[in-house]
Amino acid sequence: MVVIELIGKSPLGAHCKHAYFELSFDQCIDMINQLVRGGWLLEQIQLYELDRQPINLPVEAFDGQPITDTFRRLAAQWQEALS
After folding, report:
1. pTM to 2 decimals?
2. Domain ranges within the chain, ordered by starting residue
3. What residues contact 24, with CB distance under 8 A and at least 6 apart?
4. Beta carbons within 8 Å of 16's beta carbon, 6+ residues apart
5. Three-state SS for 41?
């Protein structure tokens, strides 16, 4: 299970803290990009996995573009290379 916790300002200027649970890593990344595309200004993003320390993700890495298809293509290429 992956948990993403983020802090930022909504498109209306409200300072908010949100968490998203039980999504895959690529779904979490797409969710963050969807928020950016919708006008959110993110200040902090943390990724949590079971029994691990949180990982701070760089907010500047999220440009609002979905990446799920890119992850799937890279995973398929990686699997093919390992075969």
Report:
1. 0.76
2. 2-82
3. 2
4. 7, 8, 9, 10
5. strand
Q: What is the DSSP string of 13-40?
A: S-EEEEEEEEE-HHHHHHHHHHHHHTT-
For 35-82, the pLDDT digits (tens) are 999 999 999 999 988 788 999 999 998 989 877 777 778 888 988 999
Beta-bridged to residue 44, according to DSSP, are 7
Which structure tokens are listed for 39?
Answer: 């006008």
Q: What order do you get walking across the sheet with 41-49 strand by strand?
A: 15-23, 2-9, 41-49, 55-57
Non-local (6+) Cβ contacts of 59 within 8 A are 8, 42, 43, 44, 45
